[in-house]
Amino acid sequence: QASQEAVADLIARGHERIAFFSSNNDHTQSIRERFDGYRKEVARLGYITRPYERWIPVGAGGPDDTMVQTISDALAVMRRLPEPPTAAFCTRDFVTACLLEACGNQGLEVGVDFGIATFNDMGPAYFRYQRRLDLVVQQMETISTTAVARLQALMRGETVTPGPIRIPAKFIPA
To answer: Model's pTM, two decimal places?
Structure first.
């Protein structure tokens, strides 16, 4: 739901073509849900999203020069499309960090020439200029206290309903 809210905010600010960048780990439920949220929201714009979507291979070390180059190349190709993107939605912090570098290398000022909405799983200090980004922030304190409460209940011998618990992320516009 937060993915849709972030993409809807980009659309509300006039962005009609929104790129999608993620790591290639699309089998992870959270990444899949983020992608689905992006797809649902851009569907109302009525364009084929595939040319604007990139799944970036990630090595064990996370972001590196190869990843920055891959994202930079992808952005350059997208900017040559008949209707280039004016914004992007990213599912991971380190993908966004690479996209920020790619934008800088291509003379795009984020928040002015190009909008970015991203999940911010690493915390508020991860991005140097976070005020220019739309952030989707996991509620880590709520997630932690919920997990601890469930563990404590199990240790007391209480029955805990199995399965995932959804803690909604918080959307913070730029």
So the answer is: 0.85
